[in-house]
Amino acid sequence: MTAAPEPRRHAAAVSGLLLLNKPAGITSNQALQRVKRLLNARKAGHTGSLDPAATGMLPLCFGEATKICAYLLEADKSYRVAARLGEATDTGDADGTIVETRAVPDLAAQDWERIFLRFTGEIEQVPPMYSALKKDGKRLYELARQGQVVDREPRRIRIYEMQLLEVQGTRLVFRVRCSKGTYVRTLVEDLAKAAGTVAHTAALHRETVGDFLTQDMLDLPAAERIAASGPDALLEHLIPADRALRQWPEQRIGADAARRFNDGQAVIVGAAGAGGGSGHVRVYEGTNGFLGVGELTGDGMLTPRRIFRAGN
Predict the structure, then answer these.
(1) Is there a catalytic annotation at residue 51?
(2) Distances in Å between the alpha carbon of 210 and those of 58, 190, 294?
(3) Which domains does the chain possess?
(4) For residue 12, what are the contacts with CB-CB under 8 A and spacing of at least 6?
(5) Which of 81, 94, 132, 138 holds its CA 20 to 30 A away from the CA of 54?
(6) Three-class secondary structure of residue 135 per DSSP
């Protein structure tokens, strides 16, 4: 007699963030889908994609927390980068085909640190052809795979800090803290050009996103072990959504204002609103839970931008 198949679990209304230490060899979306299945979550998204070869912090958002994905995209990030000097590839990383080789000058650590300083601060960067940006409705990487090279507008980014960790022969390792929109592969190529050679990114590991730190991450095998121990075990490792926005001021409002805020209405908070300023704030009802993202308009009004439903 054939055993009856196990009934499928209904997807759960899971809400929160999980900071995955993405392994190499899978896409960001593949990593998301695996954790989504572990949590049996209905709704999920990720923010700040990593290339398949890259590893490190990938914020995964579930349920109501998907509403803050766009804000996490704005966050600064830091990476540990290993570059291979003397070899350029068509993709800018180790997955590509070598298209140029050049001798590597014998530069001391102090020389590289001086080069780093030239790229610290606000700079312009031309996005690589192997990127997900669009040109006339097509992804650049799709055009690149067809052998096409098109003009790309330079973008302004900010490099806050670069720290040399190792330089030996053709191996260069450094840490960089940068703004959103920074292409580390392009940064490596530009650094090499300034040094009189070529290079590609051999390994890339994202260490931080915004205020989240390396120790906040959970790797995929650990997540799978935790999930196997019980249906709700992995839920305990989710981070509340408002923690991703803790660099913003908070605004606390009363019960009546909270009801209007939850209905999508602007509410009056007066000149004392979040210190009298303007911009995005985290909104709470008294000492109770997180209501969502609001925007102070500078005239004492608080406008809802992302509303988090009760119980999430």
Answers:
(1) yes
(2) 12, 25, 19
(3) 16-74+212-242 (3.30.2350.10), 77-208 (3.30.2350.10), 248-307 (2.30.130.10)
(4) 39, 40, 41, 42
(5) 138
(6) strand
